[in-house]
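During the reporting period, our protein records have gained a structure token line. A sample record is set out beneath this paragraph:
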Amino acid sequence: MSGLGDDLVGRYFDAAERLLRRVREEETAAIGAAGGLIADTVAGGGRLFAFGAGHSSLAAQDVVYRAGGLALMNLLSVPGLTGVDVRPATLGSALERVEGLAATVLDVSPLRAGDLLVVISLSGRNALPVEMASGARGRGVRVVGVTSVAYARETAPSHVSGTFLKDHCDVVVDSKVAVGDAELTLDGAGAPFASASTVVTSAIMQAVMAAAAGELTARGVEPPLLRSGNVDGGRDWNDAVFERYRERIFHQH
């Protein structure tokens, strides 16, 4: 690797570490509050869901059916918007801007009053995350938003309501990611590059899961955690968790 390549690698890790430190220093209380809402939902018999469109879906998927994760976390998926599983990939971006799509998804989803939905959207400005959060709350679902609040300060809203995802949540965790989601610049490169939102948002989601597990344990409630299927006894453990919480787990149906 060239000396320039080595420098860029170091600059990227420095940028990612700075973001993670900022989140730890400034968002620990919000992460704890999100974990508390999840603990309330688990203890109260509710179900847990996570939603993200496009690349924001990666952090949502990372907490579903995950070793060391909560078994009750389900993915609320929308065809064409889970990662980049549609061609052309630009169709996913277009679908995220379709007004009314979130209401249709919620109408046919298993979400009900007393559940909790985590909505992940870096910009939080498009119709789908805005309407997913507002529609879920209107149905009696508690909503945690994971987003970059900078977009609400530095960009114009694209939804007709003039609002962002952050305006429709019970708890908001700010990822601190800069508008544009690219951490590096270089003379001759023409555009910024090297995004960090997936790294930071995935860390936030795992921290929220940790906070929830800790809060449940503090209340004397054993958290419904999954073990790795690649350790001895892991699959038997998971089978027992699935059986106990079968009616609240949708990724096994």
Remarks:
- Strands lie at 48-52, 73-75, 116-120, 142-147, 171-174.
